[in-house]
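Dear colleague,

Following up on yesterday's call, I've attached the two folding results inline so they're easy to grep. Please treat them as preliminary; we haven't cross-checked anything against experimental data yet. The first protein's sequence and C-alpha cells come first.
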Amino acid sequence: MYDALRAGASGFLLKDVTAEWLFDAVRVVAGGDALLAPGITRRLISEFAHLRPVATRQAELSSLTKRENEVLLLVAEGLSNTEIAARLVVTEETVKTHVSRVLSKLGLRDRTQAVIAAYESGLVVPRHPA
C-alpha cells in the first residue's frame, strides 16, 4: 500500500470491498479526490505518527555547508563518488569527506538514508515521467 501511494495512487481499497463501494471509489478518484478504505486509515495514521516532521529534517539540513548540500543533491541524483568528484572538480577523497560529514550531521547510516532524507525534506522532488 505504501509503495502504491508513493508511486502516485489516488486511493487504496481492500480486496473484500463490495462492487457498490468500488464504483463509488472510482467516481471519487475520477473527481480528483483521494480515497482510502477505512481499515487502511488507522494504519496510515499510526505509520505517519512515527515519521519525523519535515521541519525537523529541514532544520538539520540547514546545518550543512553549501558544498555538503551540493554533494547531498548529487548523491540523491544517484551519482557515485567518482562522478561527484568530476562534477565538482575535486578529489574522490574530498567527496568521501563531504559525504561522511553529511551523514554525521544528519544522523544517517548510509547514502540510501541520505537520499531518503533529501526527498523527505523537499530538497529533491521526484520527477514525473513526461
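Below is the second protein, in the same order (sequence, then structure):
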Amino acid sequence: MNMNDAPPPVEKSPSRYFDKKFGMEAAKILPGEYFATDKNMLLVTVLGSCVAACVRDTRAGIGGMNHFILPRSEKDPTNPVSMSARYGTFAMEILINQLIKMGGRRENMEAKVFGGGNVLRGFTLNNIGESNASFVLEYLQNEGIRVAAEDMLGVHPRKIYYFPGSGRVLVKKIRELHNHTIVERESEYNLRLRDAVLGGDV
C-alpha cells in the first residue's frame, strides 16, 4: 500500500505522563494516534467502538499501540465506504513499519487486540464495533502476525494498559459511564474521518 493513499494519524503526539500507580512513564493514546517504544513504559487507551492493536517484537522487546476506527458512509451505513479500509490498513501499517524501523522483525511479532464494542449512539444497528473487530483480525491473519490475545465486542468500553516490553496487558471493563467522554470522542473522530473520505481528502 502506498502511504500517500491514506490519511495520516492525528498529528499531535500522544500525551506523556508519569503513572503513579505503576511507577513508570506512560503515554495516553487517543483515537487516530499510535505510539511505539523500546523503553520500559506503559501505553494506555480507552476504547468504545474503536479498536486498538498492541503489537510487539517478542524478541527485541519493542512494541506499540494504535487506536482507530473505520469511517462509515451515511449513504450505505452497513458497509465501509470504498476508501475507509485504507484508514484501518494505514493505522496498522504505520505502527508495524515504525516497529521495523526501530529494529523489530515482522516474523517475531505478536498482536493483542481490543475494543469493537457497540457503545456509539446511533451505530448499534450498523455493528460498527463488529466491523472494526473483524477488520483487525483479518488484517493480522493476512499479514501472518499471530494474535496472542483478544478481548473485543460486547457493550462495555474498555480501558487498556499495555506494557510493550513484556507484552503484559491489563483490561478494565467500564460498566458504568458517569460521563459521555468516550462516546463523544469516538463519535467526533468517526465523523471527522467519514467527512474526509467522502470529501476525497485521502
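For the second protein, one point worth flagging: Strands lie at 15-19, 24-28, 34-37, 42-47, 51-57, 62-66, 109-115, 146-152, 158-163, 168-173.

Best wishes,
A.L.
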